[in-house]
Write a structure and sequence with these properties.
- There is one protein chain.
- With 297 residues, this protein is an alpha+beta fold.
- 29% of the residues lie in helices and 26% in strands.
- It has 6 helices and 17 strands.
- The chain is globular and about 55 Å long.
- The chain starts with 14 loop residues before the first strand and ends in a 5-residue tail after the last helix.
Length: 297
């Protein structure tokens, strides 16, 4: 049976808590939220007019898989994944199947917590120009995509609209306090190390990724999505070679098309051709299957 493409959800009787670039979040009462991942795609912090079929289901179910694997490192916000156990009016909405979760409402820390194990993407561009990554001095002579001696933490401000901006660790400490800044860095690196080791065993390299955190009472909590092709750069380990730009399972395929199109990275974004849409869907599905070990149902 074909799976419907969902670009936006509207749930009669439900109060919209927040609408993000790719998700709608609803108030479910009693300190709980329902998060719904659409098939919208954001690139260069702009939502594209063309959806990617299956994307929201991949993001949701791959995040659920990783939440289970990382719960010993830090608690997460996940409460329920079975739609039949959601409160009304959500449980009767079949379009939410496989792309929604019931979560604990947390007070979000407005920081993107990025871990990088390899010098690639925007980090490579900065390194070539300044010899730094997120303002931190790096060893000389690194090649593109080369593995760093140790994973590094490169926080960024989380923009509601517009583009996220890298900040230094000192700036982070000034924003949230030294203790929380240190905790965010330690947990981010621990999560990256664990995920990198697991992915490598599945034939994938986790080059970099980002996490978001919130607080449930006094407890730091992992929230949003984790370790998906939207928030991470995965490479096929068999095709990896330093000094090259390895093909990735993230949105780079779309970014490459958009860059070649001459788009200035400001709204509105151009539509995607059918071959780019299909290729992106297949990359998302293959990433899921390689990590989880079974196809997405």
């Amino acid at each position: 049976m074909a799976v419907a493409t969902v670009t936006e959800t509207k749930i009669p009787g439900a109060k919209l808590f927040r609408k993000g670039k790719v998700r709608e979040v609803y108030d479910a009462g009693e300190g709980k939220l329902v998060m719904v991942a659409s098939d919208r795609l954001s690139a260069f912090d702009v939502v594209l007019p063309t959806p990617i079929p299956q994307k929201g289901r991949v993001l949701t179910q791959l995040s659920n898989f990783w939440f289970g694997r990382t719960s010993s490192i830090i608690p997460n916000h996940l409460l329920e994944t079975d739609l039949a156990r959601f409160p009304e009016p959500f449980r009767s909405r079949r379009e939410l199947e496989g792309r929604s979760v019931l979560v604990r409402r947390c007070e979000r820390v407005d920081i993107e917590c990025v871990a990088r194990g390899y010098v690639s993407g925007s980090a490579w561009s900065e390194y070539v120009k300044d010899g730094t990554i997120a303002g931190e001095r790096m060893p000389r002579g690194l090649a593109e995509s080369e593995k760093l001696p140790d994973p590094i933490f490169t926080p960024a401000t989380k923009a509601v609209t517009g583009h996220d901006e890298n900040i230094s660790r000192a700036q982070l400490a000034a924003m949230v306090g030294a203790d929380l800044a240190k905790r965010l860095e330690d947990v981010t690196i621990a999560l990256y190390r664990a995920a990198h080791a697991y992915a490598l065993g599945r034939g994938l390299i986790l080059a970099d990724t980002k996490f978001e955190f919130g607080s449930a009472g006094e407890e730091l909590t992992l929230i949003d999505e984790i370790l998906t092709p939207d928030s991470s750069r995965y490479w096929d380990s068999a095709r990896y070679a330093p000094g090259t730009t390895p093909p990735s399972y993230d949105k780079q395929y779309v970014r490459d098309f958009l860059t070649a199109s001459g788009w200035n990275r400001e709204p509105p974004a151009p539509a995607l051709p059918a071959e780019v849409v299909e290729g992106t869907t297949q990359r998302y599905l293959e990433c899921y299957e390689r990590l989880v070990g079974t196809p997405l149902l």
